[in-house]
């Protein structure tokens, strides 16, 4: 008999499904892929269709879901509320509870649930595990997690800071400690996850003590299409003076704001190109993005007291030398000094980009949310 050591990870996003098949016996990535533009012109119709396409892709690679070597399926679930703070074996009851959390993550949780349902239909015999974006942030102290609003109202509606991208913040903070040759327990790190969604976290000795996203993945940094922090008064103003409905304001702030709202492009590569041509809107979008990042670097430096490393990760953090340079420019007073030559080198692995004299290490650390989910899944269900 073969021992089942393979884990399939499904990361169903709002408009894409990413998958990875990992052999946990030796850490080999056997297959990975992406189905994009779900529900858009030229793309597949919906998430269920996207997942069937993932199943077909795997079958085409000779790695079909019917394989006896498959030990478990791990699912990224964005919102776990206060109910889920650990990876959880999926049952009908767990699915129902994730469904109850949809109002807290309307862009994300429905897609995650579809992924779970389709995978359970295809392999009802396999253990399936939900790994939550919020879980790594369950350690936030109350002072960081609570909003200063009426306590009874907050408790009644579950209003608090949950934080997201937790698998990335967990993976990258550990990988940063490894890069420094230290144990996670001995290192304080500010992790800057800069993808389409973007968030910062303050990790003290391996434990998350603050993060920029809140009740939903809208708060904090400027993102591709999301505003990040704004005065909540903007919402009332748009409703009372602009006559917009709650749904319209939600769409505006989540899908038509951020870099896209400021300059019409959400891709940092395009913004870089346009800045090179002297485009003033692209320049402003870049400056607003960087200004917000610097505020969080300052804030989380104060939260941590001692910072050993700042780690840049995800699409923008791993690839944009100009964002990294602008984010830490002129911060020598905080012990942060970049090495411009190292920073400009294009490379793929985890690496230091700070000057030898920098008190705070500045690192580029590629994230691997799928690996982190596979590890959590196998630990619970496979091994
Ligand atoms: N070479 C690059 N230079 C600058 N930005 C890049 C580069 N490559 C990718 N990006 C940015 O990374 C973003 C996507 O990041 P990613 O982590 O893949 O996002 P997500 O997983 O949230 O969809 C893109 O919007 C793009 O702006
Ligand atoms: C939670 C979140 O913002 O996720 P993503 O970056 O995948 O949109
Ligand atoms: Mg991502």
Automatic annotation (TrEMBL):
GO terms for molecular function: acetate kinase activity; ATP binding; magnesium ion binding. Its EC number is 2.7.2.1. ATP binds at residues 18, 193-197, 267-269, 315-319. Substrate binds at residue 76. Gene3D superfamilies: 3.30.420.40. Coiled coil: none annotated. It is an enzyme of class 2 (transferase). Pathway: Metabolic intermediate biosynthesis; acetyl-CoA biosynthesis; acetyl-CoA from acetate: step 1/2. Mg(2+) binds at residues 11, 369. It holds the Pfam family Acetate_kinase. It is found in: Cytoplasm. Mg(2+). Can also accept Mn(2+). The keyword Transferase applies. The keyword DNA-binding does not apply. GO terms for cellular component: cytoplasm. Its cofactor is Mg(2+); Mn(2+). The record marks 165, 226 as: Transition state stabilizer. The active site is at 133 (proton donor/acceptor). It comes from the Bacteria. Keywords: ATP-binding, Cytoplasm, Kinase, Magnesium, Metal-binding, Nucleotide-binding, Transferase. One of its GO terms (biological process) is acetyl-CoA biosynthetic process. Belongs to the acetokinase family. Homodimer. HAMAP family: Acetate_kinase. Catalyzes the formation of acetyl phosphate from acetate and ATP. Can also catalyze the reverse reaction. This is Acetate kinase. It comes from Actinacidiphila yanglinensis.
